[in-house]
Write a structure and sequence with these properties.
Length: 547
């Protein structure tokens, strides 16, 4: 690592970036990397956009779009103008269309998806095909605004299957289709506040490290939440991070002053699923001490861990689940997310138990929507609040987006051998292994590791490899951000600083999703080279002191 000697304080150049979000810092690092002499090997592992896409559901989508246009022209065909699709007999016409185009890409998945809705979900075929057809044409506002009735059930089936496994909780979940996980976060924060379930200045717990926006949003003046960190400080026997939560950290949520617990599971940036023991401990706390605790779990990476289980399974009545289709299916540009809430939940009960003055305020707020505003469920308040109440009648994710989301869900639900799931997991794990091989470090096997990212702690490496004296030398002579700046400057590599996610100051986050496989051994080797520069300097200065 290099230092800047142009100022009285050589580390000042790096300190000024301490308060900047890592997602904004990456732009500066990208600019520096673009000026590097090594630009032919410019490697940006700073953002988690995967470099794969699920092709089959997309093929089914485009083929079904042709069916939708044919249905429109069947009703009214005047040059460039068509009509609204007709529901009567549409199921049989779809069968004829598929028979005609059976050999085309996406046809088999499309046929299986429609059959799944009829046979497994109990849909009337005409109603099912019509909803999808009208939706893909996009000729109507989203109705209901939360999500199309059939599409909601299909997406819910997918979420429960992936997040809860073979033993989902009793009852059902309601789903609100939203513009990616980012919109879900914004809507949830706001509706919790508006409905008096959270208040400005409340104490909330964050499972740390975590996705940076959860930290940054909590500090906005609008919320000014007091943050209680639930830190993943557990270690393997080797002394390396296992990124799990000790019981003493989990127990922080037992404090009745903690109003909500925000979890990213599997974590970002460590990329580890929460251990079963932690899930059980959280559940025990909720049942015995904190039945009023609000839990928000962001489970976007759940599909990358075998046998993953979400808190939506363990504490369904207390949990708001956020899911994005972006990572697993390679569709960040589609902006496809979902909020899932169990029909029997504490949020509705907490609203019902509010003081009468608060209820009156909410009756005034939601009164334009219904004659019985007290009966509006929390999830439907999310929908209304997302459009400032007055535009509730035009709320909802666009219908063509809902179809794409549904097709992704159906693709997974009908992939009996889970070939796609296995492939995406293998991609991540092989890249992870290449990264660690490039660093010439052993990788501890761990079934809870998602491997979508890897968080590398240089200080932990220094402690385990060279001991306390070298650690003190690093702290005295270097700034943690020098790691990422040196990688950008000398190797044209962009990584994000782990400190921006609440990870250890001397850590970096490597996205294992967005670069070719061969890039990761190179990143590992260059990271070691950067660190080795500090080691050599330490050795020289130590030798001088001994003379």
């Amino acid at each position: 690592m290099s230092t800047d000697t142009t100022t009285a304080d050589p580390l000042e150049r790096f300190r000024k970036w301490d308060t900047i979000s890592p997602f904004e810092l990456k732009d500066e690092l990208g600019r520096i990397a673009s000026l590097s002499k090594d630009t032919q090997t410019f490697l940006n592992a700073g953002r988690g956009n995967p470099n794969w896409i699920a092709t089959t559901p997309r093929e089914a989508y485009w083929l079904f779009g042709r069916f939708g246009v044919e249905e429109s022209k069947r009703v009214w065909d005047d040059k460039d103008l068509g009509g609204m699709p007709d529901k009567n007999g549409i199921g049989a016409r779809f069968d004829a269309f598929i028979a005609k185009h059976a050999s085309e890409p996406g046809a088999d998945m499309l046929k299986r998806g429609i059959e799944y809705g009829v046979k497994e979900l109990g849909f009337n075929k005409d109603a099912w095909v019509y909803e999808l057809t009208d939706a893909i044409i996009g000729d109507m506002y989203p109705v209901p605004p939360r999500m199309g009735v059939h599409m909601e059930k299909a997406v819910c089936k997918y979420l429960v299957a992936e997040m809860c496994g073979d033993s989902p909780p009793a009852g059902k979940f309601d789903v609100f289709a939203v513009e990616g996980g980012t919109a879900a976060m914004c809507y949830i924060f706001d509706t919790l506040m508006v409905n008096g379930l959270l208040h400005r200045g409340d104490k909330i717990a964050l499972a740390m490290p975590t996705f940076t926006p959860y930290i940054e949003i909590a500090h906005l003046d609008k919320y000014s939440f007091e943050i209680v960190e639930v830190n993943a400080t557990s270690l393997y026997e080797s002394g390396a991070h296992s990124w799990q939560y000790p019981d003493s950290e989990i127990d922080k949520i037992a404090d009745p002053s903690v109003k909500a617990f925000f979890v990213v599971n599997p974590s970002n940036p460590p990329s580890y699923a929460m251990a079963r023991s932690s899930l059980e401990r959280i559940t025990k706390i909720v049942r015995e001490k904190r039945n009023d605790l609000i839990i928000i779990t962001d489970d976007v990476y759940g599909t990358f861990v075998e046998g993953f289980q979400s808190l939506m399974k363990w504490a369904p009545q207390n949990t708001i689940t956020v899911y994005s289709f972006s990572k697993y299916f390679g569709c960040t540009g589609w902006r496809l997310g979902a909020i899932a809430i169990h029909e029997d939940n504490v949020f509705d009960k907490m609203i019902a138990a509010l003081p009468e003055k608060e209820k009156d305020r909410l009756r005034t707020r939601y009164g334009p929507l219904t004659l019985t505003p007290d009966n509006i469920k929390f999830i439907d308040r999310l929908v209304a609040d997302s459009r400032q109440i007055a535009l509730n009648h035009t709320a909802g994710l666009s219908m063509p987006q809902q179809v794409m989301m549904t097709f992704f869900a159906l693709f997974d639900l009908t992939d009996d051998n889970h070939a796609y799931r296995s492939l995406t997991r293998r991609i991540c794990q092989e890249r992870l292994e290449a990264l660690w091989k490039g660093m010439k470090l052993p990788l501890v096997p761990d079934p809870l590791r998602a491997g979508y990212y890897s968080t590398l702690d240089l200080m932990k490496w220094a402690e385990l490899t060279y001991g306390e004296d070298f650690m003190k030398f690093l702290v005295k002579n270097y700034h943690p951000l020098q790691i990422v700046f040196a990688l950008a400057t000398f190797h044209a590599i962009v990584l994000l600083n782990g400190s921006g996610f609440g990870a250890p100051d001397w850590s970096v986050r490597v996205s294992l999703a967005n670069l070719p496989d061969k890039a990761y051994s190179e990143i590992g080797g260059d990271l070691v080279q950067v660190a080795q520069g500090a080691v050599e300097r330490w050795k020289k200065e130590s030798a001088k002191q001994k003379v």
